[in-house]
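INFO batch 0412 | record 1 of 1 | parsing
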Amino acid sequence: MSATLLDVAAVRARFTALDRRLAFFDGPGGTQCPDEVIDAIAAYLRRDNANIGAPYETSARTTALVDHAHERAAAFLGCAPGEVAFGQSMTALNFLLTRAFARTLAPGDEVLVTRLDHDANVAPWLEIQHDTGLTVRFVDVTDELGLDYDDLERKLSDRTRVVAFPAAANSVGTAPEIRRVVDLAHAAGALAWIDAVHYGPHGPIDVAEWGCDVLICSPYKFFGPHMGMAFGREELLRSWRPYKVRPAADEPVGHRFELGTCQHELLAGLVAAIDYVDSLGWEAMVGHERDLGQRFLDGLPGHVTLHGLPTMEGRVPTFCFSVGGHSARSVAEHLAAREIAVWWGNYYALETIRHLGLDEHDGAVRAGIVHYNTSDEIDRLLAALTELG
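INFO prediction complete | emitting C-alpha cells
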C-alpha cells in the first residue's frame, strides 16, 4: 500500500466529468479536468478576456496572468520562468524548436531517437533529415520493451547532436532511467531532448535534477487544457535563431518560441491544473496509481498478452495488451459496451507497434491508470477482459 493514502472519493468529487459509470482508462489520450480548471477558463473569458500590452484593466490582468502562468509552469518543471514556452500543442512546439535547432546542424550530424517514442519526438527529426544532411538513428528496446542502454551507448558517437527520448512511453508505460540517458548524451557532447507528455500525470518533473536541455509536455495529459508547454535551457535558447514575427518579444527568452498570441483562457486553466496537482501531492497520487497498477497486473487473465514490463518497476501504470482471438478494436468496443473507456491502435507510437510485429492500424489495446481511477474500476476492467476468454 502507498505510504500516503489518497482520498479518492474526495478527489472524484472535484470532477463533474467523473460523476457517471463510465470508467476512464483513456488518460494516455487525455485526462479529465477537475471543475476548478473548467471554472478558471470560463472565469477568464467572462472577466478578463483581452490581449496583452494595453493600459486598460482587462489587458493588465491578462498580462499578469501570462506572467503568472510562466511562473507556475516553471515551478511545475523545475526551471526559471523565462525558460518556459507555451504553444498550440507539444507536437507544434517540437516542430518549432527542432526547426530552430536545425539551423545549427551540419551534414553528417546525427540524432538518436528510440523505438519507445511517440511520433511527435520522431517525425520532426525525420523531416529535418528529409530537408538536410541530418541522419536519424533508432535506439532499440529489450524483449520486455525497456530501453536498450547498451544499444544507446553503441550508437552514440562524436557525430551525435541530440538524444531524443520519452520520460515515459505512451504506448507500453516504460519509464527509462532519465538521468542515465541524460548523462550518456552529455558525455557524447549531445543534447538530451525529453518528451514528458505521457510522464506528466505520473510523477514530478524536475529539469534541473534531470539535467536535460529541452523538455516538452502537454497540460491536457495532467488534468489541464489542450495546449503545449516546453522548457529550454536559457543559454541554449539564446543560441538559436527563432522562427517568429519581428516585433514579437525577445525577452524573456522563452517568449521567442511562442508563435502569436497565447491562448490566455487556457493559461488560466493551466494554472488551476498545476494548483490542483499541488493540492494533492505527488506521493499520494503516485502511490495510489502504483497500487492500482499492481492490482491490474495481478488480476490479468491468462488469455491476455501484456506487451511491456511485467511489474510496476521501471514503468508508469499504462498497459498495452492483446487478447487472443480478438482484434484490438473489437476488444475496445467490447469494453466500451460495458462503459469502460480504453484506446486501441498504434497511439502514434509507430516504432513500438512495428517492433511488436502488430498490425500498424489495429495495434493493441491500451489501458491507462491515473490517480482518479478506483479499485472497483480495475475490477470491472479485469472482469470484462475475462469475459473474452
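INFO post-check: The first helix runs from residue 8 to 12.
INFO record closed
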